[in-house]
Structure formats: structure tokens, C-alpha cells
Amino acid sequence: MVAEKGQGFAVGEGRIGRVLIAFMAVGFVALIAAGIAAAWMTREFSRHSAAVSHTYEVELAIADMRRLIEQGETTRRGYILAPETPGFLQAYREAANALPRSAKRLRQLTYDNPKQQANITRLEGELSQLLDLRARSVDLVANGEVAQANAEFREEMSAARLREIRDIFDTMSKEERVLLIERDRQQERGINLFYSVLTVAGLLLLAVAIASLLVVVRYTSDLTQSREQLQQLNESLEAIVVDRTADLSRANDEIQRFAYIVSHDLRSPLVNVMGFTSELEAATTALGALVDSVEAEAPELLTEDARLAAREDLPESINFIRTSTQKMDRLINAILALSRQGRRVLAPEPLDLTRLVDSIRDSMAHKLDETGATLTIRGTLPSIVCDRVAVEQILSNLIENAVKYRSPDRPVEVDVSGGTVGDRIWIEVADNGRGIDPRDHERVFDLFRRSGTQDQPGEGIGLAHVRALAYRLGGTITLRSALGEGATFRVSLPKTLTLQEKP
């Protein structure tokens, strides 16, 4: 009877690790789903904003063209009634000259909307006739035939034609309003879907936490029962039983702490996973000792599944989890570092860029000597008033990347140069390294994105950090490169950093 219970306990130990790993995997899936939903929602917000901005551009173009038509009609009538006033003719010509450009812009903005294109075609037909009549009236007045111009003006029915043109404009404005309403509806549906995904992910995480806690409590209970059973196996094995009991007590304490983490630290799933991994590793050591003891003293109690679980399955799974969590921990720490940099108060001060580059060269002297690299300052670097830490981090990252991603075919050469353009300065860091494919020029600035052969350590945050710092300093960074031809990073910054943010 005791042997049967002990055997069932051993099988349970083999399963507990897999169950907990499964729960952790479900939690990761929930987090990934929430992250994908957030990324999708961000993209939808951007798309919606662009669409709304385009709608407002179209409405402004409609209003501008409408204004020019009304201005042309008003100034023409003024010129017919008072030809001796030169202001009317000048205003009429200004409106007439601007009208074709306005019509062209309106057609370009609505090229993807067949309804608006049809409306513009109608508008151009009406407008062509109106413009011909206007031109004739102005020519008659200019030639001194004012009476003839007045007579033709009364007969041409321009008021009816203007009403038709206004109706077309009203139709186009209504079409843009309909598009705007539909886009707002799409945005609302996207927001509702986003919150639904977050709700499902939250509920799933809660369910995983509860299930994990129940498993751990049940496992703790099984450990206690097994300890009592082992104490009764054989009085001659009293010393072994005492040792085993102590091991089980320590394992029980670890499991209790593990349960505490699950119940109180759920808000940080990664911390939970790393904590679980440590607890399982300690428990695996204890269980391994236990298996060794049972195998030596009572081998009939130990099954092959239990032996494999304690010596192979659990250590292998724990190593996999630890490797994955360590990588994620590094990524999260990198993001936190970027976040802290964003909250750091900038402190502008006059900087000697030449001296700054020299200090970077001194700090990297060992690496430069080790790789045979040379760092050269070309010409005179410009003066700047900026944050020392941020500028130093930008240049350090670019120079270190130049040394890291060197070409195996030639010694590393890194050139730093700079200049002034208006109220801004530029700094270039050029190298003769392996180069970057033009298709990846934008990609390399994204967080966790890297280009080319991944034979160097790193998480893909250096250039993202550089760009974030450059933007915060009011600057930009661009890249010129081709495979096998090296890379040149150009940083543009204001001569004097003006703080616009609150500490």
C-alpha cells in the first residue's frame, strides 16, 4: 500500500513541472496577444488620423476653390460697374490665376474617390463656360465696350451657373462628411475590439494564476503526505528518513514562497516566471537528492518515469525557461533604460566636441587596440550647447557600432567630422565596415531590429536609443550605406538646446 502511494507521488512529481510550464506558456500567450492588440490599435490610430487629416485637406481645398470662384465673380461685376477702379481688375486676375492651381490640387487630393472625381468633372464643365464668359466681359470692358459688357452680363445667367457650382461644392463637402463619419465608426469599432482583447487577456492571466496556485497547494499537500509515509517505511532507515524529511521541508518552504509569488506578484508575469524558475531549480536539486536516496535504499519505490522526470525532464525544461526569461529580462531592462533616459532632465552646457570624441577614444582604447581600429577627427568640429550625457551616448554608440561591425577584409577606420548649416550643426561618423543593405536603412533604427549577419552580441537597441536621444535633443539622424562599402551616420542638432519640457 505504501509502495503504491509512493509510486503515484513520484509520477506526480514528473507531471508538476510540465503543468506549471504549460500555465506559464498560457500566460505568455495572453501577454503576446495583448501586445499584438496594442500594436494593431496603434497602427489603426495612425491610419485613422491620416484619413481624417486628408478629409480636412479636401474640405480646405474645396473651400479655397469656392472662395476663388466667388472672388472672381465679385471682382468681375465690380470691374463692369466701375471700370475706372483698377483694384477690381487686379483682384479678378489674381483669382483667375490661382483658380487652375486650386482645381488641380483638389483633383489630386480626391484621385482615389470616384464620386469626387465625377463631381470635379461636372465642376470643370460648368467652370469652363463661366470662365469664358468672365474673360469676354473683362475684355469688352478693357476695350471700352462697357455697355456691351453689361448687356451680355445680364443675358449670360451667371447667377444660375454659380448656384449649380455651389450645389456641386455642397455635394462634395457632404461626401467628405460621410467619409469622416464612417472613419469615426471604424475607429470606434477598433477601440472596442482592443478593449475586448485586453479583457480576455486579463481574464486568462487571472485563470492561470488561480490554477497555478491550486496546483502548488495540491503539490504542497502531496509533499506533506509523502513525508509522513516515508517516515514509516523502515525504522532501520531512520537517518535517511530524517535527511529526506529535512529535504522535503526545505522543498515545502520553497513551494510556499513560490505560491506567495504567484498570488502577490501576478502584475509582473516575467518576475513570476523567473521566480518560478528559481524555485523549481531548488526543488529539482532536492528531488534529485531524494531520487538518489530512494534508488539506493528502496529502488522498488522509484519508477523510470520519476527518474527521468527528476534527472532529465525538469532540468532541461528549467534551463529552457531560464534562457528565455533571461533574454526577455534583458529586453525589458533595455526598454526601462530607454524610458529612464526619456525622464532624465537635460542639462545644456557648452561642449567641445573634439575633446568629447577624444575622451571616447580614450575610453575605447583597449578595444581599438585589440581590433587594430583607428579613430580620426576630420577638420574642426563645431561648437554646440547641448546635454553632455546625451551627445556622448550618441557618439559612443555610433563609434562602438563602427568597430563592432567591421569588415574582416580590412582594418577598421572610423572618421568623425562636422560642420554648421544655419542655426544647426551636423556630425558624421563614417566607417569602412561591412555596410548596411539600403532596404534596412530605416529598419535598423527600430527597437529590437538588426540588419545583416547576426554574429555580434546585442539586442538591437543601440540605434533605437541613438535616434530617441537625437529626437529628444531636437535633432535627427540619417544613414548612408551600402553592403561592403561602410556606413555613414549623420546627426543634425540645433546649435543651442532649448528646454521645452518640464523636469
TrEMBL record:
Protein name in the entry: histidine kinase
Gene Ontology MF term list: kinase activity
Coiled-coil blocks: 216-243
EC numbers for this chain: 2.7.13.3
Domain Histidine kinase: 261-497
Signal peptide: none
Entries under InterPro entries matching the protein: BphY/WalK/GraS-like, CHASE3, HATPase_C_sf, HATPase_dom, His_kinase_dom, HisK_dim/P_dom, HisK_dim/P_sf, Sig_transdc_His_kin-like_C
Transmembrane segments: 20-40, 193-217
Class of enzymatic activity (EC top level): transferase
